[in-house]
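Note to self: keep these together.
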Amino acid sequence: MSLILCIETGTDICSVGLAKDGELVSLRESAEGRDHARRVAVFADELLRENGIAPGQLDAVAVGKGPGSYTGLRIGVSFAKGLCYGLGVPLVSVAREAHEAGILSVDAWDRAVLCPMVDARRMEVYAQVFDAAGRPLSEVSAEVVGPESFAAFRTPEHPFVIFGNGARKCLDVLPDALFAEVAPSARGLARPAQRALDEGRTEDIAYFEPFYLKDFVVTASKKRLF
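Structure:
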């Protein structure tokens, strides 16, 4: 039996789940703004307590690798690293989450092209294109979305399905796209994390870094402080 604490903080949603043998047991989530630093440890403690599990019984900690919010990713990864170091358990990272709900009702599903989008502010998203079997058709990229974006994949023969917290804002620009209500969640880490643990694909706790995709840019505050 494997118990894995799953942490996803790459978007506005702070999500922590407890998985047993690759199946989600309990979940805590909040979409009330970017309050991850305060919530992630509380959610983890609540999940363990309500399931009668001591931290030392965990077999691993899994974390969403990104891309996503720079601050959100750092909070989730830092917390996961601290737990792994203190408990002496392996760290697992997940770059592509598993989702069964929301997008499976699309007509002509077997021919659909899937494009998860993470909000990167304004009209920019982090995105990658997959076929219906989950095979990547493009690399992960930062895309400023316009009428010609993803043109090679938007064809009458293949429904172009967009989802994630950056997708809704693209509907007016991509009128031929189909929108599905799916968001990054710790529930999507359970199965991939178990597979990674079973195959020995764990991370170096000291040197692991999430996939930021773009460097963090520091800008001067416009507020008058004095």
